[in-house]
Amino acid sequence: MNLMKFKGWRRTMVVWFVCVVVVCCFSVVTGEMTSPDGPLPMSTVSPAIVGNITISPSIKVNYTLELSSSAPVVLDSTITFTAKLRMNPNNTVPEGEFHYLWLNSANHGQDRSKSNHEAKLDKTFSGMRVDPGEYLLTVIVSPKTRPREILAFGNIMFRLTRRLNGNLKVKQNLEYQRRNDTFAIDREIYFHVNITDRFSMTKSPECMYFWYNGSELIHSSEKPGFDKTFLQPCVLYLQAEATASFLELDTSLSSLLPHDKEPKYGTFQEKLLFKASLSNCTVSRVDSSTDDQSVKLGDAIILNIACNGSSPSAVCWNVTGLNMTLNETCKPPSQFLNTTQHQVSVSIGQTGWSTVQLAVFNDISVHVLSQLNYYVYDADTVDIPALVFPIVFIVIGITIAAAGGAYIVRLRRRLHVEVADFDFDPNISVRTTNILSPVAAAVKHIIGRLRRWRDQSNRNSHSDQPGMRRSQSLYESL
């Protein structure tokens, strides 16, 4: 019995000896070299450091421990450590609860917790006890039923700073933005400081924000953001200074948690460019007249494009079927020129009607031009009805209009002669210089004879009636 107890104690001592060796090997504190008062101001948050298991017991190599943290964080704020346990080789999630032992080299503290395959630890390091710098965290995972057995362990470096951490965000609603640091004038823009440090409920920080363009103060407020509109293109050296002051809460818990009462400071800087959007773009054809919509197969259409706005800019185009609109514009080219005036050469590889869709880009805008329709003809073929028919009808219309105009002018210049209306014998014809007069006389003669024949037929048809005969005899007696 005593021998078994001795073996158990020996195994426990071996486990703890391994833990102490790991902690001692990695417990090297390196202070920040950027400034004696802490790290230099940062405009962005460094990504969370993720570490994998470096050493594993040979009997449990099928476990992997992934560690991450919310570092960097300012002293007296809350840092979150995360541990995820996985099983090899398929990276599956183990079932059940596990014991987690958290060892840090910042204050040489130990924390224990029970959780499933994923565990988190929130911890605050006091600025009165810990200096800013980089420290080591070691996590040891054991089974719930066998807490003295090590399944996996890993380590991760985390950084504590003296100044506030966060980033500077700039937002503007733009349809197109080529560069993240370039924005448009004559449009509202929103500036915002995002402080990533989290503080516990026992401390209530009051923040004040000061915004500068170089050394010029442009805004100050207790709110972390503000709106502004720039009217002229410029370069903005934006600098935001944040000050966090802490008010002690009158609670017994706050008195048990010592922390630095001095205000926290943070500085965030960005260089921003403001440019004018593209507007009033015009396009004209160079190889022919602007109104010419025809082009020979194999020849290129040369177009001049000019826009108002800031450079650099670039032009792209799509060639589609007639009036076939695409859902999106063409993709901007990779090379931009330091001008807003361009000359492009557009080639169409098929005959018939096609539509050319042009778009002009600069750093913060895109201007889509009106669609241009062109007819491509093959000079080796004769059949080009799309051009022949319109030309023929145009020539005919011009001829008719010219002939009609000449005839009207001739009628206006002719002398008007009035002729007395004598009742000549219908058989006598009058010769005139008009070519149509004989034809008109013949037509009148035929119509007269037909009328007399009809009247005679009507009199003969009514001559047999008694009343008609008496009337006729009475008429003859008169």
UniProtKB/TrEMBL annotation:
GO annotation, cellular component aspect: plasma membrane
Protein's name according to its UniProt entry: Uncharacterized protein
UniProt KW keywords: Membrane, Signal, Transmembrane, Transmembrane helix
Signal peptide (UniProt feature, chain positions): 1-31
Stretches for region Disordered: 456-478
Domain of life: Eukaryota
Record field: compositional bias (Polar residues): 458-478
Native species: Littorina saxatilis
Transmembrane regions: 387-409
